[in-house]
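Minutes, project check-in
Item: structure for the 338-residue chain
Input as provided by the requester:
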Amino acid sequence: MAERELAGLRESAATYEGELKRSKLRLAIERSKPDDPVQLTKRLLHCLYFEQDLLCKSLPQGEGGSDQRQKIRKLFDLIDQLEQSIQEEVPTPVESPPAAVVSPPQAEEDDVESIPGTFYRGDHGGRIYLENREAFNITESMVHDHHLQHEAEVQCKPSHQENSHIQYEIERILFQGDDRYSPVRHFMGYVELGEHFTWYCVDMNNSENRYLLHDKDVHIQKPQDGDACAFNVLAGNHVARLSRLYREMPVEDKSQSVKKYPVKKEEDKSKRAPFLTGCRIVIIGGLAKWFESVITETGAELECWCSDIILIVIFQTGCAEVWMAKGSGEPYNNLFHP
């Protein structure tokens, strides 16, 4: 059993010795290159540190680990030499004047060639695939701004950002597409609040077309029950995405948007001539201020009891008052208008 372990340790030591030789060879090759030798040496040291940890952890106790200890000593010698070489090769920093920042001429950006691509409609926005095999998403608002339809051919201009990322801008439409061939169906309808605070989009032409509203649109756009909207539904799906939301205008905005013109009164229209001059009228029920202007216009006088005409406001008078007024007026042949 001990012989097998010893053979295994010898095999491991031979493997590590071969790695050490290869590391020395890599170091010699890297030193021969004109590139930054310090960075390359640091990378090699990082690998040797890792091997050092492995060897120390697998070092057996007793007489069987002599070969591995020799291997570790050689590894330590190599690490010392590499660390010393780094210290010798690192130059003393010399202060240099600040370099002038030269901004690239604007003409270079203008000379960037535009790339054609094809737009594919999604249930919310879409995606443009360029001829250089790159692709990027666009929002629903960008689809409306550029009036894009499914499979429209567009021309996009790339621009380099500060984070080395390339952003594309839609310049123009080369050929318009057709949404009729899109896998997305478009509806005009309204937002409806269902049970358990569940939001739906309902087709205005067929209330049976009722689709669950996506959570993102609920949290971001915050619709109200009954708001008119345009929404999209992907074929085979039952979740709607808001394309546009038409919120109700506030009351103050409506009043400001509609001009009110003064209504001209007809000055030449003659007032009705008094036709009850000298008559006295008693009204049973209600308040006097309800009838004063009307009675004054007829030329009559509003009396408390002795009168020529008795008027009774039935919905403001009880039955007892009605029959009492009728009985009191019969001996005088008063007109009775209940």
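Outcome recorded: The chain has nine helices and 14 strands.
No further action items on this chain.
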